[in-house]
Amino acid sequence: MRSRIQILDNNTINKIAAGEVVERPASVVKELVENSIDAQATSISIEIVNGGKKYIRVTDNGTGIINDDIKLAFLRHSTSKIKKVEDLERITSLGFRGEALASIASVAQVQLLSKTKDSLSGRQVDVHGGEIISNKEVGCPKGTTVIVKNLFYNTPVRKKFLKSDNAESSHISETIYRLALGNPNIAFKYIKDNKLILKTPGNGDIYSTIYSLYGKEFADSLIKINYNGDDIKIDGYIAKPSYTRGNRNFQYFYVNGRFIKSRLLSKTLENEYKSLIPINKYPVCILYIDTNAKNIDANVHPTKIEIRFKNESILKYILSKSIKVALEEKNLIPSVTIN
Ligand code: ADP
Ligand code: MG
């Protein structure tokens, strides 16, 4: 009998992978900006039109891509960030799976322009639906620009699942807030339908970054958290109990620079606020946890929004202690002295 099992062609494989990595325009923004961050950019600008469905552009002043490497960047599992399986144990970059550009380019019309500091000219590559349609020398500044047009133009069913421009824009905004808060050393600029939406100073200061994004009233409600252990460091802010939210969307946790969602961390935070805020209200935080890469596993989720901690109980103990101390210092909870 003739064999019925076939190995899928690359374009089909990329479209399947795109189903995991590229859920909506905001996922494209996330992947492109993360690439810019990994390329040591100090300035990143994002422009979108029509909720990112029509047009997304991310420009950075990072390292750029070596001319000959540009077409490799669009291949699946092609990455400059890891080389072998042991590297997965010590990931310091946001990307490492080598999937994003290949996935995005398989479901959109992508143009990438890039130049390294040592190269005299840059390169422009156009990839439509996974096919390279042009690859030429151009003049451009050092860094990389990626333009993604007409997302899901060749996968009509997925396109149909996209929401209104407003709904998609708000996903993008949330994505950019997460990235901008997580990288106070990078100057972010976000333009939506020709209107400037946000700008961060990029001066490395967490407080002024928060201030630039949320304004004075919120910045005034912040309490500093700082723990400096050998193995774990925690930095950032919690908000006073008078400043709460109806959901967990204003709990920003970063581990080694990566925004994550973590039940463990949220519960630990909430536990310290339990007696201070009403039921159904959630405390607010922007916390940065730094630890040796070997203490976490980031390779558990395609979008890497969840990670695994090797030693949960120590982290939980340190976080709750740091929050307790900070709240006590502001006299928000009574400290008990035993004579
Ligand atoms: P990953 O980020 O997982 O390595 P991607 O598909 O997102 O995979 O990108 C593939 C490769 O293209 C990266 O490893 C990097 O070498 C290069 N690249 C992509 N975007 C940029 C950028 N903005 N600046 C410099 N290099 C980039
Ligand atoms: Mg990437």
From TrEMBL:
Keywords from the UniProt entry: DNA damage, DNA repair
Q: Which residues form the DNA mismatch repair protein S5 domain?
A: 210-328
One GO biological process term is: mismatch repair
Please list the GO terms describing molecular function.
ATP binding; ATP hydrolysis activity; ATP-dependent DNA damage sensor activity; mismatched DNA binding
> Which terms in the GO cellular component ontology are assigned?
mismatch repair complex
**The organism's place on the tree of life at top rank:** Bacteria
Report the family membership: Belongs to the DNA mismatch repair MutL/HexB family.
Query: What function does this protein fulfil?
Result: This protein is involved in the repair of mismatches in DNA. It is required for dam-dependent methyl-directed DNA mismatch repair. May act as a 'molecular matchmaker', a protein that promotes the formation of a stable complex between two or more DNA-binding proteins in an ATP-dependent manner without itself being part of a final effector complex.
Q: What is this protein called?
A: DNA mismatch repair protein MutL
Species of origin: Caldisalinibacter kiritimatiensis
What part of the full protein is here? 1 to 339 of 645
